[in-house]
């Protein structure tokens, strides 16, 4: 609709009624083929709401660590494993000095008894509502924190489901993301044991990496055919493309997180090939 309306207005300004007709046609093409991509970067709201990239990145950063802290304390106390996982996560991001202190402060704020999870996630959702890939990555990072000790406690699962609901993620898709991450975690552990040029062949022979596990990383069942594998791979790679996510509001420091997820997806796909 917006494409047609603007096309007619600008067309009439420059070419009267002939220009208006031409503008309507161009607007129709815009509405039909470019609307989805336009919405991903915020649509017209991006022009009129003063949407600032740095503000979005700061919100993603603080919200991410605060919710991580809240989930880490879901069982009453933060375990040494969760503290180590948070520290390693900061190391991966290359956080030092004031930036690391800000992350630690946000993590501690999330552990406080008066931390309002609902309000924090809703505020996050309001800013990133049109950027579904970032909402999903946010949820994946929370799952990663909760799963840092190799298993999920009932209270952790309950909180993760709550976060996914507040983000607008359906229960079915939450279970899909959770299952895929668990497969990715195991796949990464087994791949880490392998060195050298023939990593994937050796992994299959020596550590039990299977076709089923690699398919699970892509969110597929063992019955998936080659076409379905390629489609899932391309979709996941697009969702986790670091440059695209940074342009939508992912902090530069968290680019490494997206890169690692892309590498695991790539590794699973290469293994299947």
Automatic annotation (TrEMBL):
Q: Where in the cell is it found?
A: Cell inner membrane
* Annotated ranges, domain J: 213-273
Instruction: For this UniProt record, give its keywords in alphabetical order, as a comma-separated list.
Output: Cell inner membrane, Cell membrane, Chaperone, Membrane, Transmembrane, Transmembrane helix
Give the matching Pfam families: DnaJ, TerB
Reading the lineage from the top rank, the first entry is Bacteria
Ranges of the Periplasmic topological domain: 1-4
Cellular component annotations (GO), alphabetically ordered: plasma membrane
Which stretches face the Cytoplasmic side? 29-273
GO MF annotations in UniProt = protein-folding chaperone binding
This protein's membrane topology, according to the annotation, is:
Single-pass type III membrane protein
Instruction: Please give the Gene3D superfamilies that the UniProt record associates with this protein.
Output: DnaJ domain (1.10.287.110), TerB-like (1.10.3680.10)
* Subunit note: Homodimer.
Q: Which function does this protein serve?
A: Regulatory DnaK co-chaperone. Direct interaction between DnaK and DjlA is needed for the induction of the wcaABCDE operon, involved in the synthesis of a colanic acid polysaccharide capsule, possibly through activation of the RcsB/RcsC phosphotransfer signaling pathway. The colanic acid capsule may help the bacterium survive conditions outside the host.
User: Per the entry's comment, what about the domains?
Assistant: The transmembrane domain is a dimerization domain.
Q: What protein is this chain from?
A: Co-chaperone protein DjlA
The record lists the organism as: Pseudoalteromonas aurantia
- Provide the taxonomic classification: Bacteria, Pseudomonadati, Pseudomonadota, Gammaproteobacteria, Alteromonadales
Primary gene name: djlA
């Amino acid at each position: 609709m917006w494409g047609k309306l603007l096309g007619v207005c600008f067309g009439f300004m420059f070419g009267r009624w002939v220009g208006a007709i031409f503008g309507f046609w161009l607007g129709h093409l815009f509405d039909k083929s470019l609307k989805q991509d336009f919405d991903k970067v915020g649509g017209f709201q991006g022009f009129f709401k003063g949407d600032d990239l740095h503000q979005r990145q700061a919100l993603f950063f603080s919200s991410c660590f605060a919710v991580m802290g809240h989930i880490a304390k879901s069982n009453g106390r933060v375990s040494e494993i969760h503290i180590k996982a948070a520290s390693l996560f900061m190391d991966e991001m290359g956080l030092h000095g004031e930036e690391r202190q800000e992350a630690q402060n946000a993590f501690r704020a999330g552990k406080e008894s008066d931390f309002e999870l609902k309000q924090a996630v809703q505020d996050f959702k309001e800013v990133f509502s049109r950027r579904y890939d970032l909402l999903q990555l946010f949820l994946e990072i929370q799952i990663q924190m909760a799963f840092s000790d190799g298993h999920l406690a009932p209270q952790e699962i309950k909180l993760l489901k709550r976060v996914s609901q507040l983000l607008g993620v359906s229960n079915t898709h939450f279970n899909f993301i959770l299952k895929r991450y668990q497969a990715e975690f195991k796949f990464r552990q087994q791949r880490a044991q392998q060195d050298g040029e023939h990593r994937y062949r050796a992994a299959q022979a020596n550590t039990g990496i299977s076709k089923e596990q690699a398919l699970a990383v892509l969110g597929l069942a063992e019955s998936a055919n080659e076409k379905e594998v390629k489609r899932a791979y391309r979709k996941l790679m697009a969702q986790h493309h670091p440059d695209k996510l940074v342009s939508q509001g992912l902090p530069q420091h968290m680019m490494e997180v997206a890169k690692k997820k892309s590498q695991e997806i790539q590794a699973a796909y290469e293994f299947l090939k």
